[in-house]
Amino acid sequence: MSFSWNLPIDFAQMLSWPFMQHAYESGTIVAIMAGVVGYFVILRRSAFAAHALSHIGFAGAAGAVWLSEALALPWLTPVYGLLAFTTVGGVTMNALSPRASHRDVSIGIVLAFMLGLGVLFLSLYTGFASEVYSILFGEILGVSSASVNLTLVGAAVVLGVMAVVYRPLLFSSLDEDVAEAKGLPMQWLGIVFMLLLAVATSFAVQVVGVLLIFSLMVTPAATAQHLAKRPASVMLISVGLAVAVTWAGLALAYFQGSYPVGFFITAPSFVLYLLVRLLHHRIAVPAETEEARWKVGGASEPSSKH
Questions:
Q1: What is the pTM of this model?
Q2: Which residues fall within 8 angstroms of residue 32, CB to CB, at 6 or more apart?
């Protein structure tokens, strides 16, 4: 579709197509959910867990496709396999290593086992698993209205639970030792977070795919951390960035037409992170240099009062 620079007409025409309406609806829902959960992913140093769960979800999708054929269950779509495997994988990771900061080995072990199951399921399936392979790169332009409704329900559950456990989860994410000393249920908080991450990942891979999960789950939150300090502000900025790159990516993919949506979502997200990181560095370095100069000179820092 060509771009005429008449923005109202161009975007009205784009949104007149049902598949683009569904894409924007599901993309917005997933971006909001990923922006909120992504903040805690960064805070708890769980980026590897998010990455692993997306691959585990691929194995679950393969299992769902195989079972759907073997047991003649047409309702068993890949998204159910995604949810089942990511949930089991997340709980297992937390059970093997309750502390988020010491979970890498457990994540690697669970990931290897689940991927092995995925290979087995694909070998048992006699057809061409196009739905499974599409999960690798996302299938947002093929989302149905039923999938949008399912995504909305999943996001409502994730955000609702997140609102309930927000304060203890934030406390435990900032300092695990102090939170444990205060008597917070660290084991249960870890399980709840991994379940939330599993559900959020299952829906996010439908937008950007398994291989590009970081573009929504990690990059916006990592960018937002350079722009604000207060948790609520960081989450709002993270959500705004995730929604912005998703909307921009869908529009670019529609008008360009030749390249996948995942690329147009991940590329702006990455470029924006680099720009913010560079700007933050250029601001921080002169401030640190000025502070060091005053200390070396033996003088006190200038007062901030005017």
A1: 0.81
A2: 155, 159, 239, 242, 243
For 66-90, give one letter per residue: b (16+ CB within 10 A) or e: bbbbeeeeeebbbbbbbbbbbbebb
Give the number of domains in the chain.
Answer: 1
List pLDDT tens digits, range 154-185: 889 999 999 999 999 998 888 888 888 888 88
Contact yes or no for 224/36 (Cβ under 8 A):
no
Assigned domain for 303 exists: no
CATH number, domain containing residue 180: 1.10.3470.10
- Alpha carbon distance 275, 194 (integer Å): 31
Please count the residues of the chain: 306
pLDDT over 60 (residue 279): yes
Task: Tell whether 238 is covered by a domain.
Answer: yes
Q: Which domain holds residue 64?
A: 15-296
For the chain, the 3-state helix, strand and coil shares in percent, each to the nearest 5, are: 80, 0, 20
